[in-house]
Write a structure and sequence with these properties.
By secondary structure, this protein is mostly beta strands. The chain has a single domain, classed as Beta-galactosidase, Chain A, domain 5 (Distorted Sandwich). Helices cover about 15% and strands about 40% of the residues. The protein has an 8-stranded antiparallel β-sheet, covered by helices on one side. Strands 4-3-2-1-7 form a 5-stranded antiparallel β-sheet, with no helix packed on it. It starts with a helix and ends with a helix.
Length: about 300
């Protein structure tokens, strides 16, 4: 009987926690050059967009309990351009924006819904050429949900001249996970098709990939979602040292030359739209209900 009562109590607690999460609201607070995100008064992340940065990005993205699942900016052991969560890619009219050889300058960050489930923000970024003029104008709507799902709706528009997104593996949307979470330190990687490990998941298209490991001695995961209505399927650039991104470009690069490159050409005024998700969860892939959250996101984010 004691075991039954204990089990019932656990169920009640879990249901209460789930209800709290569903009722919680995300709060967005504009600061100088940044937007602070919180849930129930607890920090969630910071969007940094000041013009002195080489590109805007989210930093200190937190899971339940405050565990930071992204790598910090201080003294990176490699790839200093892997900053938090970002949107960038190399070889746009020959400019290496991913490697920060070209500047992505935030022109406007608008808080559309300061509190809610989701809260919403819109950013307008100019991808600048060597002449300081925009090559690409990026307009991205970001919805942040109380279950720690970040939903990105990205539109790239050619500015005053034709634009070419060339074949490259260096892009496009993703993050650098916290060092303790990465595969080389015991983390696990799995995709929607059941493939496991960075070696097998790298360069493959899949609805989602989940990266799970330890942060503050607790299991946390970060999943990336590729929307089924995107005009091209994306492939995952996922590494054992913690890089975790996906991109619709790079057929030749990701297939080691087995497939032909398919560069994207945009004429002035033409737009290319992509939708991606980033989901931070407690526990492993099953406990975090990654497949379920992906399905709900794919069906409702139209």
């Amino acid at each position: 009987m004691k075991a039954i009562r204990l089990a019932a109590a656990v169920v009640v607690i879990l249901l209460a926690v789930q209800s709290l999460a569903e009722d919680a609201k995300v709060q967005l607070d504009a600061k100088d050059g940044a937007v602070e995100l919180s849930i129930g008064g607890q920090p969630l992340a910071t969007y940094r967009h000041s013009k002195d940065l080489p590109k805007p990005f989210f930093i200190d993205v937190r899971g339940e309990g405050g565990a930071i699942v992204t790598r910090g900016l201080e003294n990176p052991e490699d790839h200093p351009h892997h900053k938090g969560v970002w949107v960038a890619i190399d070889e746009v009219n020959g400019v290496k924006f991913w490697a920060e050889k070209g500047k992505i300058e935030n022109k406007k960050t608008e808080i559309v819904a300061a509190a809610g489930n989701p809260a919403r923000m819109r950013v307008t970024n100019h991808w600048l050429g060597s002449d300081g003029e925009p090559v690409v104008v990026e307009t991205t709507d970001i919805a942040i949900y109380a279950n720690r799902l970040f939903s990105y709706d990205i539109r790239f528009a050619a500015a005053s001249k034709p634009v070419v997104f060339e074949d490259t593996k260096e892009g496009l949307f993703g993050l650098r996970v916290a060092n303790s979470l990465r595969e080389k330190q015991g983390g696990k990687v799995v995709n929607a098709d059941g493939l496991k490990g960075t070696k097998d998941c790298w360069g493959k298209a899949s609805p989602w990939v989940d990266y799970v490991g330890q942060v503050d001695e607790q299991t946390h995961g970060v999943a990336l979602f590729d929307h089924p209505d995107n005009p091209r399927k994306s492939r995952y650039h996922v590494r054992d040292y913690g890089l975790f991104t996906l991109s619709p470009f790079g057929e030749k690069s990701y297939s080691n030359g087995k497939e032909a490159a398919r560069p994207l050409h945009l004429q002035p005024g033409e737009t290319f739209r992509l939708r991606y998700g980033l989901y931070v969860h407690r526990g492993d892939t099953e406990a975090g209900k990654v497949a379920e959250v992906y399905k709900r996101w794919a069906e409702t984010s139209k």
